[in-house]
Amino acid sequence: QQQVKQSPQSLIVQKGGISIINCAYENTAFDYFPWYQQFPGKGPALLIAIRPDVSEKKEGRFTISFNKSAKQFSLHIMDSQPGDSATYFCAASGSGTYKYIFGTGTRLKVLA
Amino acid sequence: DAGVIQSPRHEVTEMGQEVTLRCKPISGHDYLFWYRQTMMRGLELLIYFNNNVPIDDSGMPEDRFSAKMPNASFSTLKIQPSEPRDSAVYFCASRKSGTPREAFFGQGTRLTVV
Fold it and tell me: For residue A94, is pLDDT > 90?
C-alpha cells in the first residue's frame, strides 16, 4: 500500500513532442504528489508538485494531471527539448508523515 | 545557502571494510533523509530524522547499516562490514516541517564495494 508505481521505465521522444509519464498509488492518505527531475551525476530536484484538491497544475511546459478517483497522476512535458533529457521520479507523501515514497523512475531521452 | 552537502562524492572500498558517508543538511531544516538509489530499485528511503531523532528506520536493509545525527548540522550513514551489493548512490536530503513540503537533495555519494 506504500508503493508508487511508475511507467514507462524509459521514454524516447522527438524534439517538440509531448512526453507523458504515469504514476499510480494505493494509499489514500497520500496528500502531496511531487515530481523530481534528476540529471546524471546530480541529486533529484523538485520540478512541480500537486495536492489532490486540484486536478491539474501547470508550470511552463510542465503539467501534472491528477485523477483522485483512479489514484493516478501523470507528468506531461509539452514541446519536449533535448535539455529535458533526464530521469523523472514521481513521489507521494502523507500529511501524517514527512517521508516521500518514490516511483522507480523514468529515463527520458529527447532526440534533437 | 550552499544546499545539502555530502561527502565523499565517490568512495571505493574493499568488501568487509567500514564505510562512513557524511551529510550536512541545509541550515534550519529539521528533517533529514537518507536514500539509496540503484537501477533495480530506484530511490529507497533508508531512514529519516526529525530534530536529530530517528523517526523511521524501517528501510535500513540490515544491521550492517547504521545512521546517526549527533547535531542539527551533521549526519552519518555507516556500513560495517560493507558488501558488493551495497554498491549504489546514497543521497541525503533535508526539508523544513510545514510548507512548502519540498525536500532538497545533496549531490550523492557513489559507493563501490569491490
Answer: no
